[in-house]
Amino acid sequence: MSPEITKKKDYILIVPKAGTDFLEILRTVGRLFYVDEIPEKNRIWLFREGPEKFSCEDLYKLRDIIKENYPKGHKIDKTAIVIESEFQSRMAESFRQIAKDFPFEIRVFSDLQAAEDWVRCKI
Predict the structure, then answer these.
(1) CA–CA separation, 93 vs 81, rounded Å?
(2) Which of 121, 89, 85 is nearest to 105 (CA)?
(3) Taking the CB of residue 117, how many other CB atoms lie within 10 A of it?
(4) What is the pLDDT of residue 51?
(5) Of 29, 44, 46, 64, which sees the most CB atoms within 10 A?
(6) Which H/E stretch holds residue 61?
(7) Confidence of residue 68 (pLDDT cuts 50, 70, 90)
(8) Choice between 67 and 115, residue whose per-residue pLDDT is larger
(9) Looking at the 3D structure of the chain, how many domains does it have?
């Protein structure tokens, strides 16, 4: 099941649902970079229902896919990951460390409003 992508005024909201697997996450990342209808805006990934079956190896694969496909000149400078469970928190923080050399900043939040405030901030 593909994550839901919603164009908000100030950012793009991506919400994986229960049953979303790693391959769907990869497909969604590709859509975010290459589908013309999706504007270049900061992103919020909201993990509430899924997925919970990521491995550390998957995080490295995801990092490599993003690095290889990140379009030159992209204007995105922030990605927030909003988590609910302890497992999601550990995986999100691990990914943040693995991806620290990305051309955009990643932060992990447990509160959607805090994530929204951060991606809207022009600091």
Answers:
(1) 9
(2) 121
(3) 12
(4) 62
(5) 44
(6) helix 56-69
(7) confident
(8) 115
(9) 1
Q: Is 6 helix (H, G, I), strand (E, B) or coil?
A: strand
Pair type for strands 43-46 and 12-15 = parallel
- In DSSP notation, 11-31 reads SEEEEPPTT--HHHHHHHHHH
Residue 93's SS3 state is helix
Give the dihedral sign, CA 21/24/28/30: positive
122 pLDDT more than 70: no
Q: What is the CATH number of the domain that holds 80?
A: 3.30.750
Question: Encoding tokens for residue 55?
Answer: 């491995």
- The per-residue pLDDT for range 7-66, each reduced to its tens digit, is 999 999 999 988 788 889 989 998 888 887 888 899 999 988 766 677 889 999 999 998
Of 9, 94, 4, the closest CA to residue 55 belongs to 94
Other CB atoms closer than 10 Å to residue 91's CB: what's the count?
Answer: 22
Distance CA 98, CA 1 (A): 26
For residue 51, the one-letter residue type is: P
